[in-house]
Amino acid sequence: MFPFSVTHPRSVTQSGRQTANSGYELIAFDAEKLNVFAAEVRYCEPHWHPAPELITVLAGRFTLVVGQQSLELAQGDMLYINAEEVHSLSAEEAGSQLLTVQFSPGLFDELHPSPQLDWSSCGRPYSPADSEVRQRLARLLEQLIDNHAPFQRIAAIYLLLDAVVSAGKPTRRAESSLRDEAMIKKGIDFINQHFDQPLTLSEVACHSGMSYSWFSRLFKKVSRYNFKEYLTLVRPK
């Protein structure tokens, strides 16, 4: 098990790492290296990050959509999400909890780009490589929580990434998929900026450079909601 609890968070410490009865525990927040947090999650709308992300299901079950692929994740499952990949998730039962590790773009450069990988441990027994990822993740969390020396923490981050690279397979996405995703991102950005105004699917599709029917189909795939349902979800009640 990992060295913290989401279901029984303690009171706030001097570091501000925990909040009583919040169902949310911030393990580390350092925008130059990585953000790590554990939380009970019901739904997370389509979004993307400039650097990779590693998620682990601590409790319950989730449906996660990455690009146009839908995955079912249960307790103990882990998934690596590449930089800039659109993803969303929904809890399939009450009390479902995630551990999220968001790596920072500051960890990578032109000579050492972020890994583009296809890797998850979903729906199968852990392989030795999967177990190594989990063990290195646990070591990183221990170092963050115990506030080890900065260089030890940085080393643990890169060792975790190395384990993920060893466990995963290099991948390259098709140009057509990247094109569709870029247009969907334009649509999502437009909705997020104008959700408090009257919006139509035709207007958003036009802004994205897609046909009405193609945008509608792709949007449902990446968000798991149709356009009207999504607007209802993101607009303040």
UniProtKB/TrEMBL annotation:
One of its GO terms (molecular function) is sequence-specific DNA binding. InterPro entries: AraC-bd, Homeodomain-like_sf, HTH-like, HTH_AraC, RmlC-like_jellyroll. It comes from the Bacteria. Pfam families: AraC_binding. Residues 185-237 form the HTH araC/xylS-type domain. Keywords: DNA-binding, Transcription, Transcription regulation. PANTHER family: ARAC-FAMILY TRANSCRIPTIONAL REGULATOR (PTHR43280), HTH-TYPE TRANSCRIPTIONAL REGULATOR EXSA (PTHR43280:SF2). This is Two-component response regulator. It comes from Klebsiella michiganensis.
